[in-house]
Write a structure and sequence with these properties.
7 helices; globular; 147 residues; mainly alpha
Length: 147
Amino acid sequence: MNHNEHFLWKGSGRILDAFLEAVLPEIPGADNNLIRRKTLEDLDGFLVGMTPFMRFLYNLGAYLIQFGSIIFGHSLLPFTWLNKASRIKYIEKWGTSRLSQRRNIILAYRSTAMLVFYSQKEVLRYLNYDLESHIKERMAWLKREAS
């Protein structure tokens, strides 16, 4: 992250860290805590492109995830106090909820998390995917098609 300004609120960063721990796949042999922290840092950088109002809503949504466990009766504990298995179950419950708003919130957070996670070089290396080579091949193909 090259900017000095942070767009995740301190509390929402903590909530999203717990969310990432529950949704990100683990990479065997890698420092998954470091990858999760990098994902959180890059997610903060991802918010740079959002309008201030969307950044506000993104942070506010994290608090809805945090206290939704209490408000909607999943648990007497906030999201970050749940163990990993309970957080996974909570996210799955929201992801299959009859309320479209709950499904959409989880979809938005899971989608941005996965977008940022799978953009990391460590993850791409584990998947044996060379992004630069792929881009060069696609550009060469596009040039051939255009001529």
